[in-house]
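quick one if you have a minute, typing this from the bus. theres a chain ive been looking at and ive put its sequence and its fold in token form underneath. please have a look and point out which stretches look like helix strand or loop to you. anything you notice is useful, everything is just below.

***
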Amino acid sequence: MQVGNTFIFEHPLIQHKLALMRDKNTNTKDFRTLTNELAELMVYEVTKDLPLVEKEIETPITKATFKVLADTPITLVPILRAGLGMVEGVQRLLPTARVGHIGVYRDPQTHEPVEYYCKMPDDVAESIVFVLDPMFATGGSACAALDLLKARGCKDLRMVCMVAAPPAVERIAKEHPDVPVYCAALDECLNENAYIVPGLGDAGDRIFGTK
């Protein structure tokens, strides 16, 4: 399903695993495993338009021409720290992808992003960039990350999250209308603490067992 420039995956396996992640009784180990499994399923859909080239391959029977992925660099950029929980799952399908890192935290009073770290491959501007963050709540951290990446010359940017909220979708459509958003669910709203409702809680705390 598509809402504006946001693509919501309705595949049964994606919806099933997300439902298990929402359960407050899911322990840290299972939550971390589900995060990676869901990221892997989602990136299968996100990469459906990757460019292909023809290559001659010799099978046990004969030589023939087949389609393979073009030599287009891909960079994964998890937003620290929760985005780290998605990297392993994505790399299962894209093992040669490089990984950059952006550290942004949300100020507890203003709910606005504060940048504290950024490390990218030197040629990140030449690659397809997947920005990874499980929760897309206000859109502040994601838009800050996209600003940093565009300042480095990145043009093919894709936001990959698990649960999005309307304020984030509206904000990215206004500030970065050229960036598609891929998610497993578009939830109802944010509460007074800017947490997604019904959501799944603090993804970082649940992935790393810090609460």
